[in-house]
Write a structure and sequence with these properties.
Layout: H1 2-19, H2 29-48, E1 55-60, E2 71-76, E3 87-93, E4 99-106, H3 109-114, H4 117-131, E5 142-143, H5 153-161, E6 164-169, H6 176-197, H7 209-220, H8 225-232, E7 239-240, E8 245-246, H9 250-259, E9 284-287, E10 307-310, H10 312-320, H11 323-343, H12 350-356
Antiparallel strand pairs: 1-2, 2-3, 3-4, 4-6, 5-6, 7-8, 9-10
The chain binds zinc ion (2 copies).
């Protein structure tokens, strides 16, 4: 293994420069190590432990564009077979080729698509930190964020999403014994998390009301949100075990805000300030039938028909206002939406509807 590491450290930057950014196979020692030899050694080790059928091992120098941070991934097939989704063990070489990490890391694409890129980086870090409360610390293991000296988005995502890692310097690559001992520890963590959380670690981060509304506005300012929302409507609502709350889709809420043209649906003349999210007016998404009532309905409450766009004051009025202040407003919104709700199999009498608001409902409901 030591020679193979050195082959990558010594040659990858030169190969990358020569190829001018294109991920072309030219059979250099670094490519040979990353794509053939290191994966083969890892496969042989898994075979020896009689667990090779559970994993896919794959090296990568990038797809189309050559990677700044090349890697060899060890994917638990039931969780994921690619680096975009789920979580996996991966050998990552830093962009400056000064070091590498064997890292239990997370795919970021699914969270990035559902929320935003910056949000995903933050939340991956949160999930990684929280995962540690379920793992026993092994000696020399690195917890959390790793420095890959990366100038690209993919590398920075790996930095943020690292859960547990071992660091090896170019000047002192690991012996086979050490490398496979470290791999054994990370595979043990991998199995533990799989046992606890299944195929992704998304339940390990929470989304506050403020974060939700700001992601919604950001998404609403993008084009084609409603097209995208159509595709994901009907997805079953999941409960985050951390908060014990249903997880709302920002894309669906964004489609509702877009449909309302960033105005308050109680009164379109209500003044709101311009938000930072691409200079649209600031409004908030509110689920008319509160999402906490999901268990009473077969059909999903997280649909555009059930989401109204409100100015911040009206939104708070609906959650915190005195009954005599909000009753007529609630009835008016209900009247406006009744038919659309019925079209989505959300049938409900007005009395029952009002009862959902009888107590103070949390704002993220
Ligand atoms: Zn609300
Ligand atoms: Zn309003």
């Amino acid at each position: 293994m030591q020679n193979l590491f050195t082959d990558v450290f010594d040659n990858y930057s030169t190969t990358r420069a020569k190829l001018g950014g294109v991920a072309k196979l030219v059979g250099t020692p670094d490519q040979n190590a990353l794509l053939e030899e290191i994966p083969h050694r890892i496969e042989a080790y898994l075979k020896k432990r009689k667990i090779s059928h559970l994993y896919k091992v794959k090296g990568s120098i990038g797809n189309g564009n050559i990677a700044r941070v090349p890697w060899v991934g060890i994917f638990r097939k039931e969780i994921t077979e690619n680096a975009e989704n789920g979580y996996y063990v991966v050998l990552l070489f830093s962009e400056d080729m000064s070091r590498c990490y064997l890292s239990l890391n997370q795919g970021i694409t699914a969270v990035e698509k559902r929320y935003t890129k910056n949000f995903a980086w933050r939340k991956m870090e949160e999930a990684a930190a929280r995962a540690w409360s379920y793992l026993d610390t092994a000696p020399d293991v690195w917890k959390g964020k790793i420095p890959l000296a990366s100038t690209g988005d993919l590398g920075r995502a790996y930095e943020a999403a690292a859960i547990a890692s071992y660091e090896y310097f170019r000047t002192n690559p690991p012996s086979d014994a050490l490398f496979f001992e470290n791999l054994t520890t990370l595979l043990k963590y991998y199995e533990r998390l799989y046992y606890l959380f299944n195929e992704n670690l998304h339940s390990l981060f929470s989304v506050s009301e403020e974060e939700f509304q700001s992601v919604v506005l950001e998404k609403a300012a993008q084009l084609n949100v409603s097209e995208h929302a159509k595709n994901i409507v009907g997805a079953p609502l999941t409960v985050n075990p951390l908060s014990n709350k249903y997880v709302r889709s920002p894309v669906v809420a964004a489609a509702a805000i877009q449909a309302a043209q960033f105005s308050c649906e109680i009164d379109a003349t209500h003044w709101t300030f311009l938000s930072r999210a691409r200079k649209q007016r600031y409004v908030e998404a509110h689920h008319l039938i509160p999402i906490s009532q999901q268990s009473r309905f077969q059909a999903s409450l997280d649909v555009v028909a059930n989401i109204v766009s409100l100015c911040a004051t009206c939104h708070r009025l609906l959650h915190y206002g005195a009954d005599n202040e909000r009753k007529s407003i609630l009835m008016e919104l209900f009247k406006q939406r009744r038919v659309r709700l019925q079209e989505h199999d959300l049938q409900i009498a007005s009395n029952d509807f009002l009862r959902f608001y009888a107590r103070t409902a949390p704002i993220d409901d």
